Amino acid sequence: MLYFLLLFSALGAFWLLLSGHWHHQLLLALGAASALLAAWVGVRMERRDTGAYSLGMLLRLPRYLAWLVAAIVRANIDVVNRIWYPDTHPIHPVAGRLPSSQGTDLGKTIYANSITLTPGTVAIEIGDDDVFVHALTREGFDELAAGEMDRRVTWAEGGRR
Questions:
Q1: How far from the centroid of its chain's Cα atoms is residue 26's Cα?
Q2: How many Å apart are CA 161 and CA 155, to the nearest integer?
Q3: Cα–Cα distance, 86 to 46 (Å, whole number)
Q4: Which terminus of the chain is less hemmed in, N or C, by CB atoms within 10 Å?
Q5: Residue 65 CA: distances (Å) to CA of 32, 111, 117, 146, 156
Q6: For residue 53, what is the DSSP state?
Q7: Coil, strand or helix: which one is 99?
Q8: What is the helix (H) or strand (E) element at residue 90, kind and residue range?
């Protein structure tokens, strides 16, 4: 019950801050109903990964995100070069499975989303111990296959590298 109340309060406050409707009674009631429904759904959802949301992961996440932003910038530059200079930087699409070493669903989700956020690569399907990836180039796929992103996500998830 405490979890429900905290979730409802946080969602209601977030809605109120984003909407800016402090005096319109109908919109306040609809916002409260939305927060109530979302909190109810949130409570009913099962958290199968009991160790996924740890303080240690929260503390390691900024370091991983800094590395990810740098990887996104590098990939953006590569994709722009391939668009502007197709003769010297050709596009040769590649698809294949890459191993994933994450132990939780949250870690696998972060890994797949990181692949998709990086321009030129898309995570298509997540398996139990692998991810099916499409890349614009063999170089992009090989960079993912080298495993640096996988190792960093695993480190952020549980501290091992």
A1: 35
A2: 5
A3: 48
A4: N
A5: 33, 12, 12, 19, 9
A6: S
A7: strand
A8: none
From CA 101, how far away is CA 87, in angstroms rounded?
A: 37
Q: What is the pTM of this model?
A: 0.71
CB 27 within 8 A of CB 33: no
E-state strands within the chain: 94-99, 121-126, 130-135
pLDDT tens readout for residues 119-160: 999 999 999 899 999 999 999 999 999 999 999 999 988 856
Alpha helices in the chain (DSSP H): 2-19, 25-44, 55-84, 105-117, 138-145, 148-158
Question: 59: which 2 tokens?
Answer: 């503390």
Scanning the structure block, which residue is given the tokens 């409570």?
Answer: 43
pLDDT tens, position by position, 47-56:
554 555 667 7
Q: Which amino acid is at 31?
A: G
